[in-house]
Amino acid sequence: MGHRRRLDHIAIAVRNLESSLSRWTALLGIEPSEVEIHSIESEGVRVAMLPLADGVMVELMEPLSDQSPVARFLERRGEGIHHFALRSKDPAKDLARAREIGLEAVGDGPVETTVGDLVAFLHPRSLNGVLLEFKQRREERSHGGGT
Ligand code: ZN
């Protein structure tokens, strides 16, 4: 009874958010006013969310410091796709199901972001080198996705 999963966003690690942003907005035909930019101190990144069709986003991530995991990613692998995210109605449940089939989570469980989304990650070493995020958007959390 598998319903098909929806893509939430693809995240790209960049060295300079501003210079990357102008390229991506021009490419996608997006006005600067449509781009949401915010810092996520807990993850050490500043991000820009660029809307595509159907609510899907391209997320550009710039490290806030050398200590940021994204800074280490850039050092090791250079700019490029950092992770992708699937929409989730219940990240804790998705994480539990992933663990049941032998996949490894990053951290203990879902965490709330500074903007109120609930997110959980699967470790790339158990998933073909891909960092995968389950994301429940803040506007979909009112109907009881527990924290
Ligand atoms: Zn993400």
What is the overall number of helices?
3
CATH superfamily of the largest domain: 2,3-Dihydroxybiphenyl 1,2-Dioxygenase, domain 1
Secondary-structure element order, N to C: EHEEEHEHEEE
* Overall residue-averaged pLDDT value: 92
Q: What percentage of residues falls in helices of 4 or more residues? A: 10-25%
Low-pLDDT parts are none
CATH architecture of the largest domain: Roll
Strand composition percent: 35-45%
Bound molecules: zinc ion
Report the structural category. alpha+beta
Largest sheet: 8 strands, mixed
CATH T-level fold name of the largest domain:
2,3-Dihydroxybiphenyl 1,2-Dioxygenase, domain 1
Strand order of the largest sheet: 2-3-4-1-5-8-7-6
Described by the principal axes of the CA atoms, the overall outline is globular
Radius of gyration: 15 Å
Q: Terminal Cα separation, in Å?
A: 26 Å
Number of domains: 2
Number of E-type strands: 8
CATH class of the largest domain: Alpha Beta
List keywords for this structure.
147 residues; alpha+beta; 2,3-Dihydroxybiphenyl 1,2-Dioxygenase, domain 1; 3 helices; 35% strand; binds zinc ion
